[in-house]
Specification:
The protein is an alpha+beta fold and 256 residues long. Helices cover 54% and strands 10% of the residues. Helix 1 packs across helix 13, helix 11 packs across helix 12 and helix 12 packs across helix 13.
């Protein structure tokens, strides 16, 4: 399956922007721009120090595009947020509608929180991207927007878009948590053969396709791809392509 080029360019611009950002506000503004380009008008980024959250305190949250009044009673409702609860328990993105559908299993305070959020920001489509990194507190990015061209509600079927949104969410959390960035330039520089594999991957070619094009074995291609993933500190080829574009390792003209 070919990777859609336009979302990748959006992701690569975002990665470049947060790499150059001076502070958290700049990072949040960069994500807001990327989210808007991908069809989401608002977002919330938060994290849950597990002990505090379980003790009944609302979790820290930073937003863009939400009305200022949404925070009015958040301290009272935030510690009962079922969306955050679900984000802590799963690494998989989920539509808010999935949580609401299980309303019978929610506590009264959780249902009150849903009503508060709906009244504060509206009942438009929303998607939460959990961020789970070993040794780090759980976090999330919730993307909020009007109904539009996306198929992300319901079964959350748009795998490539979800992968890109997971990249945006984790990259923001990496940056703000202080774990951001790649290794040094010498460490993450691609070899000529790795770069060839990266370019063909960006063009939507499979491992077997690349092996035939470069006249090498599929196992060798897999070795190159594994090295690339390690150098770029990513977990899949979509993330690798977006980050390689952002870092200038491959050029947009080679992909489009």
């Amino acid at each position: 399956m070919s990777i859609a080029f336009e979302p990748l360019t959006i992701a690569s611009r975002f990665l470049s922007a947060i790499d150059k950002a001076d502070d958290a506000a700049d990072c949040l503004d960069a994500l807001h721009r990327a989210a808007q380009e991908l069809g989401w008008s608002r977002f919330a980024y938060g994290w849950a120090p597990a002990l505090r959250f379980r003790a009944g305190e609302s979790y820290p949250v930073m937003t863009r595009g939400l009305p200022a009044s949404w925070k009015r009673d958040w301290d009272r409702h935030g510690c009962h947020d079922p969306y955050m609860e679900h984000a802590c328990s799963t690494p998989l993105p989920f539509a808010w509608s999935h949580v609401i559908e299980k309303e019978d299993s929610l506590s009264g305070k959780q249902r009150d929180c849903i009503s508060y959020v709906n009244d504060a920001i509206g009942t438009s489509i929303a998607l939460t991207i959990p961020v789970h990194v070993s040794g780090r507190r759980p976090a999330f990015v919730s993307l909020i927007g009007e109904r539009r061209r996306s198929s992300l509600e319901g079964d959350v079927q748009d795998d490539q878009m979800i992968a890109l949104m997971r990249l945006l969410g984790q990259s923001l959390d990496d940056r703000l948590f202080g774990k951001a960035g790649c290794q040094g330039a010498e460490d993450n520089r691609l070899s000529s053969r790795e770069r060839e594999c990266m370019v063909w991957t960006a063009r939507g070619k499979t491992v077997d396709d690349i092996a035939a094009i470069l006249d090498i074995s599929a196992d060798t291609v897999r070795v190159y791809m594994k090295r690339i993933m390690g150098k770029l500190q990513v977990s899949n080829k979509t993330h690798a392509v977006a980050k390689a574009l952002a870092l200038g390792m491959i050029e947009p003209t080679e992909v489009s």
